[in-house]
Amino acid sequence: MQEFKDYALFPIEDSPFSVLHTIDEQISFILVPAIEVIDEYGFEIDQELVDLLGLQRVEDVAVFLIVNMQENDLYVNLRAPILLAPASRKACQFIITNRDYPIRYLLTKKEGTHASP
């Protein structure tokens, strides 16, 4: 799998969604903060990843989910979130292996949040 190092994150106005776009290629992903999608979502990362992202506290990382469309429904990938550390300007996709999170989780509107696009 090819690795891209330079991305830009563009918020989509009046929604919880953002576009993550690579600078080097024409590749983009729609992201949504995990907190907008699911309440009981958690996982552990190892010290190597903490160091890579330059994290000092758990609050230093934002967890985003990749949105995809299948047959007119929107899904998010709970098994492989995007971890973004704004202070260090670093991010990565993390694959959760010690939990049974689905790759396709139906995106529905949570109470008190924005509507789906």
Automatic annotation (TrEMBL):
Annotated TM spans: none
UniProt xrefs under Gene3D superfamilies: BH3618-like
InterPro entries on file: Flagellar_assembly_factor_FliW (IPR003775), Flagellar_assmbl_FliW_dom_sf (IPR024046)
This protein's record includes keyword Thylakoid: no
Pfam families membership: FliW (PF02623)
Signal sequence extent: none
Biological process (GO), any one: regulation of translation
PANTHER family for this protein: FLAGELLAR ASSEMBLY FACTOR FLIW
Name of the protein this chain belongs to: Flagellar assembly protein FliW
Naturally occurring in which organism (per UniProt): Paenibacillus anaericanus
